Amino acid sequence: MEIMEKYRCSVCGWVYDEEMGHPEGGIEPGTRFNDLPDDWFCPFCSAEKKKFKKKPTEIIPVDTGHFPT
């Protein structure tokens, strides 16, 4: 399973989610941040791509219903 990353605009806080893409802006779901064009900009505040920072990956525990013995 490949981990999809999220990137936050350091100017306005808008988040680009690789899994979701940005269909309204012509960016298909699954598009990697690094694959966005160099002239891509924040759709909310127009900040340059270089103003985005990768968000830390969230680890979500899964309850399997099994307990260690």
Shape: elongated
Counting structural domains, the number is 1
Q: Main β-sheet, in a few words?
A: 3 strands, antiparallel
Low-confidence region ranges? none
The CATH topology is what?
A: Rubrerythrin, domain 2
Please, could you describe this protein's structure?
The structure is a single chain. The protein is mainly β and 69 residues long. It has no helices and 3 strands. The protein has a 3-stranded antiparallel β-sheet, with no helix packed on it. A hairpin with a 5-residue loop joins strand 1 and strand 2 (15-17). The model has no long low-confidence stretch (mean pLDDT 89).
Summarize the structure.
This protein has a single domain (6-54), classed as Single Sheet (Rubrerythrin, domain 2).
SSE topology sketch:
Blueprint (H helix, E strand, L loop, with lengths): L5 E4 L5 E3 L34 E3 L15
What brief labels describe this structure?
69 residues, mainly beta, Rubrerythrin, domain 2, 3 strands, 0% helix, elongated
